[in-house]
């Protein structure tokens, strides 16, 4: 399954709102080319909710350890909660991250900045992680739906 297929799967979730900033829009240039996913069946970005998943396509200030400025790299970030974070990584999200290669593709690791809040990341989901990525994205969407309810 390609990254495009994962993206199409997420876009088909009931009540999903995808923000995908582009040049000339209302969002700052740093966000162009990235994707932000919310549960918002009314089509309005929730005022008190962060996205439940993002796709980041470049390094951001203070977030450059994943080497996303290289061509054809994107980091999927998914809010999974602390319990699932521990299940997936074997680490406590509130502890200091274990030494690992944050540039590796097709593996799950704690988000470089938001691990303590229960976020995991996958750079270029592939054969090893595509099914897991879909499952985590679906659960993150459902969790966001339940918070809204």
Automatic annotation (TrEMBL):
It comes from the Bacteria. Residues 1-148 form the DUF6194 domain. InterPro entries: DUF6194. This is DUF6194 domain-containing protein. It comes from Saccharopolyspora flava.
């Amino acid at each position: 399954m390609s990254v495009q297929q994962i993206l199409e799967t997420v876009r088909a979730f009931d009540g999903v709102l995808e923000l995908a900033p582009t040049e000339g829009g209302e969002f700052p240039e740093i966000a162009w080319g990235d994707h932000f996913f919310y549960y918002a069946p009314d089509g309005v970005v929730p005022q008190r909710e962060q996205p439940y998943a993002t796709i980041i396509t470049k390094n951001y200030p203070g977030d450059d350890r994943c080497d996303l400025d290289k061509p054809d790299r994107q980091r999927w970030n998914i809010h999974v909660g602390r319990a699932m974070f521990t299940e997936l990584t074997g680490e406590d999200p509130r502890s200091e991250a274990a030494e690992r290669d944050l540039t590796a593709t097709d593996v799950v690791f704690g988000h470089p900045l938001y691990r303590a809040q229960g976020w995991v990341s996958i750079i270029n989901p592939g054969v090893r992680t595509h099914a897991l990525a879909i499952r985590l994205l679906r659960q993150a969407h459902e969790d966001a739906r339940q918070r809204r309810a």
